[in-house]
Each structure stands twice: as structure tokens, then as C-alpha cells.
Amino acid sequence: MKLKHKYIANIAVVVFLGIAGCQKNFLDTKIDTYATPATIITDRATLYTFADEFYTSLQYGYSSLDGNLFAAASDETQQTVSGGNALYFNQGVLSPTITPDNQYKTLYEGIRAANFYLDYSKGWRAFIAMNRDTVADVTNYNKDLLFIPWFRAEAHIARAFYYFELSKRYGGVPLITQTLDQATTPYVAKSSYDDITNFIVSEIDAYKDSLQLNWKTSSYTDQNGRFSKGSALALKARVLLYAASPLHNASNDVSKWQAAAAAAKDLITTSGLNYALYTGGYGNYFIGSTSLGSNETIFAVRRSAGNGLETANYPIATPGGNSGLAPSHNLVADYEYTGTADPTNIYANRDPRLSASVVTNNSTWNGRTIVESLGGTDDMTMSNTSKTGYYLKKFLTDNLNLINGGTAQHNWIVFRYAEILLNYAEAMNEAYGPDVIPAGYPYSARQALKLVRDRASTSLPLVTVTAVADFRTAVKHERRIELAFEDHRYWDLLRWKDAETVLNQPIKGVTVTKNPNGTYNYTVVNSVAARKFNTPAMYYYPFPQSEIINSNGVLKQNSGY
After folding, report:
1. Domain with 184 in it
2. Residue 419, exposed/middle/buried by CB under 10 A (0-12, 13-18, 19+)?
3. Which of 447, 469, 490 is a domain's end point?
4. How does DSSP classify residue 137?
5. Cα 492 vs. chain centroid, distance in angstroms?
6. Is residue 280 domain-resident?
7. Cβ neighbour number for residue 519 with a 10 Å cutoff
8. Angle between helices 138-170 and 104-120 (to 10 degrees)
9. Residue 252 and residue 202 share a domain
10. Percent of the chain with pLDDT over 90
């Protein structure tokens, strides 16, 4: 990769903001960091403004693929309207000239911004005292003494986060840890996946204790949304879980599973983090501002209130809606029964996470009853209605008036406590079995899994299997349900090496017929849309062809492309 072509810009004129900039919405900053540190006069204000910049590459998951959720790349949903970048995944036609989620450049821009800040702020102690009466201004001076070390630690964690996002897409990637300028930019070969993983873990271990413990419980709650010790530990738990998984651990080295279990345990047991499952209703957790104040949320990406998610995914029969992503029957059929199956209503007595996540026929949504049978308001034979018989519900605010410009807050949750419990359950099972609790560990794999399931409903069937392989299946099922549409499914299938089976199966749906007595019949459609996953190439993205060319052959393309 020849970084001078992609990541080095001309020296910019930087607009300096005041110290009050640390109180603004740091996720919205547009300050240019592409000048080298030596070309900018450092002052206290820029130590704050440039600390915002390495957050701008965070992906907002509600618009990550075709302006919508990434779920269309997996077996979770089918796009209602044909076309778009999801087709490259669905039809197995990823190629070096196609960058379907456009993240390669964005992630390296985030890495460069982090490297820039670390270089730029090396002399921070002198800068915060410069041209200042530290006695008269002792309050702000002491605040700087707290914040700048936090910011520097955050830059390390942001860089680690971006490298994980790159490695889960590409495997090994070029590892850049310094700000490069026009005169010294080298060609950089990719490091191995294991080297990238080791770098990420070393960064977290070195800087986790230099971070704010938990912004929500600190004296600076207005900074909630920056990296904290909790989010660093959550990142480590996810990174090591991926590294232990079959895609990256072909020999099933148990020590890798033990490391992943220990990482999840560290987050669960660290004093003062105070994370817990939200008990106000699974569906409610994802709506509006609820997640920001919840102890379940470890790290979330915020944006201003809007209605893009609702506009994209409300049923076409709802004014302003475009039907968007239609959940698959493959997913819906996996929601368990909590009681006796009702032959007149296949959605009754199911795991309540179904009704919180998916709009089904004859349910109430947007102030009306969804009727998908012939002649109904949502008649599936009409143009741009759902192809599967389902609509997305999770994350969406109900009954938002799109015609009159109604808006709602949408926070993209990157890490939450339920995921950590599931990471823990998976790693513990592979390392020790379902029921062993080593000294110093809070739960067995089964107990951690039960916490998540009981939060959903205490009426769910008990998981009683005792074999590691059978419990593995139970964990996979629970991740599919609990983390539905949250940008885990595609990557889980890859790391488990299940993609070659699951993503070569067609998307299923249902058709709806209304009976004279007002009940409905549902007929499963076994092939709403074909899917293809090319093995083994598609377990990794291809590097953009432009990067291969610009590297003068130093960057080697992933195999199969």
C-alpha cells in the first residue's frame, strides 16, 4: 500500500477552536488533520479539537450498506428493492474493483488521525502551561491534566479498534503506527492476522488503565461516547473471541479460547464498570435515547435525530416508507416457542424478541394493523412490499410522522453487555465446557447464557445439553436472536466458518392467505432469493485494486481474487 497516494494531504489551514470545543458534539467535528504535526502551532485548543478527529471514522451502523443496516449481506434480511451493494455479497461477486462497504480508506483515515494525535500531543505538558497563569486558572489547568492523558489513551484504543475492523474484513493488513509525510512515505506490506491481533491486544493492555473508567458514571457525563476502559476491555474480548474462532484457529488451540474467556471475564468483574442487562424491555432498549443512559451500553456512536432509518424501512403502505430490509423467514423460524404453538397464529407464544424485532402480519405497527393477504393494506402482490412477508421493527421508532418531518434519535450500539456475556459463554464452553467455573471466574458458560435468555423471557426452554458441541449450537442460536440486525451475524458466520453452508442457502419467506373466519394461513416460500458464497475467497474481502497498484506490488492480494 502506497500511503502517500491515499492518506497524505497537502498542508491545510487549520481553524482553531476554543477550549470550549471539548464540550461540543465531538462526533460531528470536521477539522482537517492531514497536515503533519511539525507544520502546526500547538496550543491548548488544538489538543482538544484534534482529539475529536480520530472518532470521525467510526461507522454508523444504520447506514453501513446501501444506506441501511449491514444485515442484507447475511441471511437476516432481503432488500425489497433490487440492486445496491448488497448484491455483491448475495451473489458472491466481490472483486478488487468493488468496495461494497467503502471502509478500507475510511478506517485508515481513522488510524492516521490517531497516529497524528499521538505524535502531535507528545509535548502536551508544556503546551497546557504555555501563556497561562496556572494558579489563577487552576481549575481548567487541572482539567487539562486529566483530559489530555485520557485523549492520548483514547487515540491508542481508536487505532486498535480500526485495525480490528480492518482485520475482520481483510485478515492481515499493513500496520502503520506513525504519522507519515510526503518525503518519507514507504511502501508497506501487510502484517499477518496474528500480528495485527497481538498489536491490538498490546495496545489495550498498555493503555486501558489510562482511560476514563466509565464516562456515564464520571463527573464528565457530557463526554459519554468517547472510548473508556470498559469499551477497551469489550474490544479486547471481541478481538480474542475472533482470534480463537475456527477461521483463525484451525488447530483449535484451547489457549486462545482461554484468553478470550479471560478477556470477557475481566470486563464482567472489573470494579466500577457497573454494566448490567437492561430490564425495561428488550425492544425499548434500542429506541430513542434509552441506550445512552442504560448500564447495558458500553460504547455507542451517536448522531443527531433523524428519520432516515424509518424512511428506509417502514412498510411502503405507511406514508413515507420504502419497505427497505425485509427480515427473512430463515431468521423468524429460529425464534423459539415459550409455550404451546398456536396453529392459527404461528407468531404467538414465541420468544418476545421476535415481536420486538420483526413486524409480522396481523400485528400493530405505525398505528394500524399490518394485513399482507390479497386485498390487504400491505398486499404482498403490490409493488415494493416486503418480499418475505416481514418488515424490520428493531431500532425503529413506532408511528413517526414522516410526511411532516418527524425525527427520532438513533444510537448505534457498538458494544453492549449482552454481547460480552455471549462472548464469555462461547469462549468458556470451548475452553472449559458448559458447566466448569475456574477459580476467579463469575459464571459458567451455561450461567452466562441463561442470564441473557432470562432477560428475554423466563419462559424460554432451558438449555440442558451437556456436550461442548451441542452447547456451541445453543450459543450460536442465542447470538442469532439476541444480536439480530446488529452487524454480528455476517462476521459470526465467517469466523465460525459456517458461511459456506449458511450463505449458500436461499432466503425464505411466507405468503399470507386470509381465511373467512378472520384467521390467516402462512405458506413458507423456500426461495425468495438465491444466495451464493464463494469458498474460500469470500472469508476475506479483496484489497481494492487501486491499493495493489499504488503499492508497486508490495501489498499482495488476498487469495481467490
Report:
1. 1-64+101-211
2. buried
3. 490
4. T
5. 12
6. yes
7. 13
8. 150
9. no
10. 86
> No. of H helices and E strands in the chain?
20, 10
Exposure string of 300-338, with b = 16+ CB inside 10 Å and e = fewer, is bbbbeeebebbbbbbbbbbebbbbbbbbbbbbbeebbeb
Per-residue pLDDT tens for 424-457?
A: 999 999 999 999 999 999 999 999 999 999 999 9
Query: Which three-class secondary structure string do you get for 360-415?
Result: CCCCEECCEECCCCCCCCCCCCCCCCCCCCCEECCCCCCCCCCCCCCCECCCEEEE
DSSP 497: T
Q: Is residue 549 part of a domain?
A: no
pLDDT tens-digit readout, 14-36: 322 232 333 333 333 233 344 55
**Amino acid, res. 80:** T
Contact 82/134 with Cβ under 8 angstroms? no
| Residue 252, Ramachandran bin (φ over 0: left; ψ between -120 and 50: alpha; else beta) | left
User: Do 268 and 137 share a domain, yes or no?
Assistant: no
Q: What is the pLDDT of residue 37?
A: 55
Distance, CA of 55 to CA of 154 (rounded, Å): 9
Where do we find the cell 485494486?
A: 545
Q: Assign 558 to helix, strand or coil.
A: coil
The dihedral sign for the CA sequence 11, 13, 19, 22: negative
Q: Which residue has the cell 442460536?
A: 477
Give the count of domains, the chain: 2
Beta strand pairing call for 412-416 and 297-301:
antiparallel
Query: What is the grid cell recorded at 288?
Result: 430513542
Q: Which residues contact 378 (CB under 8 A, 6 or more apart)?
A: 315, 316, 317, 361, 370, 371, 372, 385, 386
Q: Are 28 and 170 found together in one domain? A: yes
Cβ atoms of 47 and 39 within 8 Å: the answer is: no
CATH number at residue 41: 1.25.40.890
Reading the block at residue 485, the C-alpha cell is 440486525
- Which pLDDT does position 180 carry in this prediction? 75
pLDDT band at 41 (very low <50, low <70, confident <90, very high): low
Q: Are residues 205 and 223 in the same domain?
A: no
pLDDT in tens, 335-383: 999 999 998 899 999 999 999 999 999 999 999 999 999 999 999 999 9
> Average pLDDT of 329-339?
97
- C-alpha 117/C-alpha 114 separation (Å) is 5
Query: Tell me, what CATH number does 292's domain have?
Result: 1.25.40.900
DSSP per residue, 176-195: --S---TTTPPB-PBPPHHH
Instruction: Indicate the pLDDT class of residue 182, thresholds 50, 70 and 90.
Output: low
Residue 492's H or E segment, with its range, is helix 489-495
What CA–CA distances, in Å, run from 81 to 316, 324, 387, 502, 508?
11, 7, 9, 23, 16
